[in-house]
């Protein structure tokens, strides 16, 4: 089954990001596509790593850092982790309560 057709804009963005020095996983994350799709795009549209000017490279790196370490993205990751931990703690608490009740009913 064929996947969703990638847009020409994604190909252009992939080439620009690659020329700015982005890694394949970083490009894939930025464009919300898989690493293998990124590889295929760059195979069809070759990019020379580091071919852009220093100003563009600096801008791309700044955007990457902002997207990775931006307050909103950090908050989303923290909220996701906290929600997962709370769910795990609720399950542990439930199992512990069941075990204690089972032990107490066995003693009576």
What is the CA-atom radius of gyration, in angstroms?
A: 23 Å
Following the backbone from N to C, one meets helices and strands in this order, namely HHHHH
- Regarding quaternary structure, what we see is single chain
Largest sheet: none
Give me the count of strands.
0
Beta content comes to under 5%
Distance between the termini: 61 Å
**Helix-strand category:** mainly alpha
Percent range of helical residues: over 70%
> Can you tell me the number of structural domains?
2
Q: What's the helix count?
A: 5
Pfam families: HTH_23
Structural topology:
Layout: H1 8-19, H2 24-31, H3 35-44, H4 54-69, H5 71-107
């Amino acid at each position: 089954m064929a996947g969703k057709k990638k847009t020409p804009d994604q190909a252009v963005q992939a080439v620009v990001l690659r020329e700015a020095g982005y890694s394949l996983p970083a490009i894939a994350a930025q464009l919300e596509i898989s690493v293998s799709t990124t590889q295929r795009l760059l195979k069809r549209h070759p990019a020379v790593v580091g071919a852009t000017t220093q100003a563009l490279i600096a801008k791309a790196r700044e955007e990457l850092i902002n997207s990775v370490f931006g307050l909103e993205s950090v908050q989303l990751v923290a909220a996701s982790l906290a929600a997962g931990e709370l769910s795990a703690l609720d399950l542990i608490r439930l199992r512990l309560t069941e075990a204690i009740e089972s032990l107490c009913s066995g003693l009576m």
